[in-house]
């Protein structure tokens, strides 16, 4: 099972808005050289939902061509057929797990039945991903029911609701692995029995997230809490520059190029780039 510090790698775009597959492979190699052993490909934070089905397949294939660790892939779609198509492709390409969210925006009358149908036709073990930005947030009771379906092996929680997280952690099957879906809740998730974090900050400062995960694995809560405070401060800095622009520019400062944002919709100004660099220097991160 995917555990520890898992990267949700950004999709690098070139100046014309096309996916830069060469940069993507370079980024995966850079992360692996710094200790990252797990990847969740085509994530929401990575801006992959702007891609076509075929582009998402090619992104996965590019990562699999160089990745050496456990690898999962987000296959969410509003269409059940497209979701199953992406699972089949992920299996054929060599992925280890498929990560499934609730459909985007449109509500489900019977969410548990929806996930049961996917599980009955999936060729890969499934990780449930509850993402509040998509709407249709799943309740703790629904999450627990879904995790009891044959084929589901883990839960990535991105609700940022500690009460929800605690309720699920108390009742979920012992065979299911709990993963943090927000860098802000790594400490809390591990404290409740979690086994890892699907992280965006790890793309920029892998050592910081890996050290936090390892501290929690060793039950070194004092060090873990101090590292979580550091992660939270970094997260606040990076998020103040847009959905992904701050992360991407900080990555360049750290030595890795994730290219442009999608259609460069939120490229930071020269002044913003300077300000970001100064803030990271004050934190002794670059």
Describe this protein with a few key phrases.
286 residues; alpha/beta; TIM Barrel; eight-stranded parallel β-barrel; 11 helices
Write the layout of secondary structure elements.
Blueprint: E1 4-7, H1 21-33, E2 38-41, H2 53-64, E3 70-74, H3 80-93, E4 97-101, H4 111-121, E5 126-131, H5 140-147, E6 152-158, H6 162-171, E7 177-180, H7 186-191, E8 196-199, H8 206-217, H9 221-239, H10 245-254, H11 270-282
Parallel strand pairs: 1-2, 1-8, 2-3, 3-4, 4-5, 5-6, 6-7, 7-8
Helix pairs in contact: 1-2, 2-3, 4-5, 5-6, 8-9, 10-11
Number of strand segments: 8
Q: Tell me which CATH architecture applies here.
A: Alpha-Beta Barrel
**Shape, please?**
globular
Q: Determine the CATH superfamily.
A: Aldolase class I
Question: What is the CATH fold-level name?
Answer: TIM Barrel
**Overall helicity:** 40-55%
Give the integer mean of the pLDDT values.
93
Decide which structural class fits the backbone.
Answer: alpha/beta
CATH class: Alpha Beta
The first-to-last residue Cα distance is 32 Å
Enumerate the strands of the largest sheet in spatial order, edge to edge or round the barrel: 1-2-3-4-5-6-7-8
Number of domains: 1
Radius of gyration over all CA atoms, rounded: 18 Å
Portion of residues in beta strands equals 5-15%
């Amino acid at each position: 099972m995917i555990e520890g510090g898992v990267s949700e790698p950004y999709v690098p775009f070139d100046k014309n808005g096309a996916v830069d597959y060469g940069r993507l492979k370079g980024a995966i190699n850079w992360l692996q050289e710094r200790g990252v052993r797990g990847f969740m490909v085509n994530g929401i934070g990575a801006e992959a939902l702007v891609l076509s089905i075929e582009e998402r397949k090619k992104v996965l294939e590019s990562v699999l061509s160089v990745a050496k660790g456990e690898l999962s892939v987000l296959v969410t779609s509003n269409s059940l057929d497209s979701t199953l198509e992406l699972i089949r492709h992920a299996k054929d390409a060599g992925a280890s797990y498929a990560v499934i969210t609730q459909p985007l925006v449109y509500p489900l009358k019977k969410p548990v039945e929806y996930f049961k149908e996917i599980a009955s036709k999936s060729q890969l073990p499934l990780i449930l991903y509850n993402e509040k930005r998509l709407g249709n947030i799943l309740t703790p009771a629904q999450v627990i029911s879904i995790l009891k379906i044959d084929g589901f092996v883990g839960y990535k929680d991105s609700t940022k609701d500690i009460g929800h997280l605690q309720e699920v952690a108390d009742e979920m099957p012992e065979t299911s692995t709990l993963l943090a879906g927000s860098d802000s809740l790594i400490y809390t998730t591990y404290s409740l029995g979690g086994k890892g974090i699907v992280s965006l900050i790890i793309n920029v400062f892998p050592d910081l997230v890996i050290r936090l995960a390892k501290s929690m694995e060793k039950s070194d809560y004092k060090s873990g809490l101090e590292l979580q405070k550091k992660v939270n401060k970094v997260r606040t800095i990076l998020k103040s520059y847009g959905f992904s622009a701050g992360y991407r520019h900080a990555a360049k400062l750290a030595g890795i190029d994730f290219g442009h944002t999608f259609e460069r919709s939120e490229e930071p100004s020269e002044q913003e780039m300077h300000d970001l660099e100064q803030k990271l220097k004050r934190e002794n991160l670059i």
